[in-house]
Amino acid sequence: MSNTSILGYCRPGYENDTANELTSRYGEAQCYGYPVSKKNSGFVLYHLYDGSQLEQTITQFAVHDSIFPRQLVAVFATVNDIEKEDRVGQVLEALKEVEKPFQIFGAIDVEYPDTEEGKTLAKFCRKFTVPLRQALRKAEWLTAKENLGKPKLHIFFESFEICHIGYTLPSHASGDHLGICRLKFPSDAPSRSTLKLEDALVNMLSDKQQAKVLRSGGRAVDLGACPGGWTYQLVKRGMYVEAIDNGLVADSLMSTGLVEHHAADGFTYRPQFGRVDLGGEFGTAPYQFAISPNLKKFVDENIFEDLGVGNYTVIVQDAKGCIELVEFEITEPDRLLMTLSSTPEICAGNEDGTITVVPQGGTPPYSTAINSDDDADFVEGRLIIENLAGDDYFVYVRDANGCLVDDLIRIESGANLTSEAELVDECTGDAPTTRVNVIFEDPSVASEVLLALDSTDPNDLVMETSFENLTPGDHYIYMLHVFKSISLRKAQL
User: Fold this and answer.
1) What's the whole-model pTM score?
2) Euclidean distance between the first and final Cα of the chain, in Å?
3) Contact 307, 274 (CB under 8 A)
């Protein structure tokens, strides 16, 4: 059962490359072992000579720093010859025989090889996840609620008969299923080439790098832009794009006001930034012009381009040698930013969570939207978004110039007070008694709820889930969640 190894998911056909990379990487860290792989299997097992090095090995490098592995799992147990009659029981039995790598795990993934043969396991793995998750929570291997901040438990089915049990660390693992970033083609994008750039941005830039390089209000140039698949990715992030192509850019992009199309050859084009056009009369024509910092270099052209942000001085000289000084400043709005805060849903199903948006920079007025950046979904001046259920939300803020920023925030789910009353008839000696037990759908809330029988008086509330010596008739139990809720819930017995 016990087995200490590193399991690397990979694309079918790249098993040798993955094995060589793991051997090299871990060998440099003196975590010695040997790889085992099968052609077109979609995974590699790097068996450690010293099992005590498992934790050290998995922290040597993150999967984001790898070339061929899509996911790296620290395997501490393997179950062979699994019988379909009781797969859950066999997995639990295997776990009893090994020492827990961590006190508790925050989530579970039941996975399979990314191959045509492996896909036959997909349906089974989805169905198997539910009873296995419940059993692991009961056995105190998993937190009552998913917690992605803790190590994740992985159950990898090599086949219907063999599975490997291991874990990943949040900081070193891929959060994608099977380690594969699956991008959905946006219906409003002008071409499928947009996915190529999105895939590169997601996999090659960290969130911080993306925020720095792809900032709202920034400028970009798309060489060979037609019809605008890559331009789409930049515009969606609120960037101004100079689209360079002799072909046409999609009307949907041009209508955003963030795209300037230049019918030019991308190999010879040079981007334009700030621009000043000096018109009007300055004396006796013809005129010559010079601009700082090259005030001694006079030209006949009265348009200066490719200027950055800053202060400039222009000398205008007419035919008689008379001069005029013109000073101006090229500016750009402060970068559009926002901060988010939330209040939790009070009770599960109430949908009373809120998100507060505080925009900064850009150009007011601001508009907000959640889970969509479609024009129809933005509401101008709305900075508090209400009536939200517990969930993750993407919040979009757009300023008057169309600059756009977005961020993710979670609203904590409310307390699930759904419960049922279990009536128990007993005898104490020869006297009959009746007891009622309150059974919560979510057992974890039991320690957070005060209850009272037939009373709403705060003095009668107790942290008990059982009441005895009930008289015949209708009774009510009032519940008060002491941490998240100040509302009362009643159940008729």
Assistant:
1) 0.48
2) 49
3) yes
Q: Do domains 194-262 and 337-411 have the same CATH topology?
A: no
Express each pLDDT in 290-335 by its tens digit.
Answer: 888 888 888 888 888 777 767 888 888 888 888 888 888 777 777 7
At 131, list the tokens: 């009873």
Each residue's pLDDT tens digit, 383-424: 999 999 988 899 999 998 888 888 889 998 888 888 888 888
The answer to whether the Cα torsion of 433, 439, 443, 448 is positive or negative is negative
Instruction: List the chain domain ranges.
Output: 2-179, 194-262, 274-330, 337-411, 419-492
Structural tokens at position 115 = 């191959």
Reference 64, options 137, 161, 171; nearest CA is 171
Token reading at 248: 């046409």
Backbone angles phi, psi at 86, to 5 degrees: -150, 65
Q: What CATH fold (topology level) applies to the domain 194-262?
A: Rossmann fold (3.40.50)
CA distance 8 to 376: 44
Tell me the backbone φ, ψ of residue 111, rounded to 5 degrees: -130, 175
* Residues in the chain, total: 493
Does the 337-411 domain belong in CATH 2.60.40.10? yes
Which residues have C-beta within 8 Å of that of residue 79, sequence separation ≥ 6?
A: 1, 90, 91, 94, 162, 163, 165
For 363-390, letters b (16+ CB in 10 Å) and e give: eeebbbbbeebeeeebeeeeeebeebeb
| Widest distance between CA atoms in the chain | 125
Token readout for 155 is: 């159950």
Rounded CA-CA distance 302/291 in Å is 10
DSSP character for 18?
A: H
CA distance 154 to 156: 6
